């Protein structure tokens, strides 16, 4: 479904991604692990068209994304939940969800609204509430739900557990797993490696912009280097 081929990305003269190559197959959860500054968020921004690679290519469903604008990438079927949630704080929950569907012209938006409320009943309870007054966990739910309203085929999740209490982290990851079981393909960036690998099918490890390890989730969870660096063992 998605493939990155030898992707180099720069911030000015800073070489942020170095020959990154990875793939995501339909129906998978693929985890992208790494420390702060490793290039995880940069990878997602490159896929979603917010950054342009200086070398290499991003291909989605057999079609290169080079030169395709970010909103057109959303229309092709990729939705990005950025780090830090980035909801519209002054809009209501309902208005935030409507913004997720702004490119759509089909007649099933109401049906998708019902589906996200099944995933996140709390949002239905808060539908008229100003989004900036929601709790951190509720804001993360809203950010994911807003992306789902675009009806993507690939969901990019950047640090969905950041800043959340442990009980909410478990709830968010259970929901991500449920979304995947319903057929959604997911590329997951997450510093909580144990939680990410518990639901992922495969994974990659980034260090200073370079993929240094890849394998099934079980292989990575059992790798001595991963256990020392990311699992606290």
Brief account:
By secondary structure, the protein is of the alpha/beta class. The chain is 38% helix and 26% strand. A six-stranded mixed beta sheet has the order 6-7-8-3-9-10, sandwiched between helices.
Describe this structure in words.
- With 233 residues, the chain is of the alpha/beta class.
- Helix content is 38%, strand content 26%.
- It is built from 10 helices and 10 strands.
- The strands form 2 sheets. It has a 6-stranded mixed β-sheet with strand order 6-7-8-3-9-10, sandwiched between helices.
- Strand 7, helix 7 and strand 8 form a beta-alpha-beta unit.
- Helix 3 runs parallel beside helix 6.
- The longest helix has 16 residues.
- The chain is globular and about 45 Å long.
- The chain starts with a strand and ends with a helix.
- The mean pLDDT is 93.
Helix and strand topology:
Layout: E1 2-11, E2 14-24, E3 29-33, H1 40-47, E4 55-60, E5 63-64, H2 70-76, E6 78-81, H3 93-100, H4 109-119, H5 121-125, H6 136-148, E7 154-158, H7 166-181, E8 185-189, H8 193-199, E9 202-207, E10 210-216, H9 217-222, H10 224-230
Parallel strand pairs: 3-8, 3-9, 6-7, 7-8
Antiparallel strand pairs: 1-2, 1-4, 4-5, 9-10
Helix pairs in contact: 3-6
What Rg, in angstroms, do the CA atoms define?
Answer: 17 Å
Contiguous uncertain segments of 5+ residues: none
Q: N- to C-terminal separation?
A: 34 Å
Structural class: alpha/beta
| Helical residues, percent | 25-40%
Largest β sheet strand count, sense and barrel closure: 6 strands, mixed
Strand ordering within the main sheet:
6-7-8-3-9-10
- Which term fits the overall shape? globular
């Amino acid at each position: 479904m998605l493939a990155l081929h030898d992707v180099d990305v720069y911030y000015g003269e800073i070489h942020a991604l170095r020959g990154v190559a990875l793939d995501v197959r339909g129906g998978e959860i693929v985890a992208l692990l790494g420390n702060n500054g490793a290039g995880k968020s940069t990878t997602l921004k490159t896929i979603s068209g917010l950054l342009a690679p200086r070398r290499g290519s991003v291909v989605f469903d057999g079609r290169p994304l080079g030169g395709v604008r970010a909103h057109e990438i959303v229309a092709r079927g990729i939705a990005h939940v950025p780090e830090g949630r980035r909801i519209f704080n002054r809009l209501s929950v309902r208005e935030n969800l409507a913004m997720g569907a702004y490119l759509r012209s089909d007649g099933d938006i109401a049906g998708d609204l019902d589906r996200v409320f099944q995933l996140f009943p709390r949002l239905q309870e808060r539908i008229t509430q100003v989004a900036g007054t929601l709790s951190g966990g509720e804001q993360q739910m809203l950010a994911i739900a807003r992306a789902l309203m675009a009806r993507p085929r690939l969901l990019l999740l950047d640090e969905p557990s950041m800043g959340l209490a442990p009980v909410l982290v478990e709830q968010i990851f259970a929901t991500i797993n449920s979304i995947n079981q319903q057929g959604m393909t997911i590329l997951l960036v997450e510093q909580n490696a144990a939680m990410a690998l518990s639901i992922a099918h495969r994974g990659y490890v980034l260090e200073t912009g370079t993929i240094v390890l890849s394998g099934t989730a079980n292989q990575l969870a059992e790798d001595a280097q991963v256990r020392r660096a990311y699992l606290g063992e």
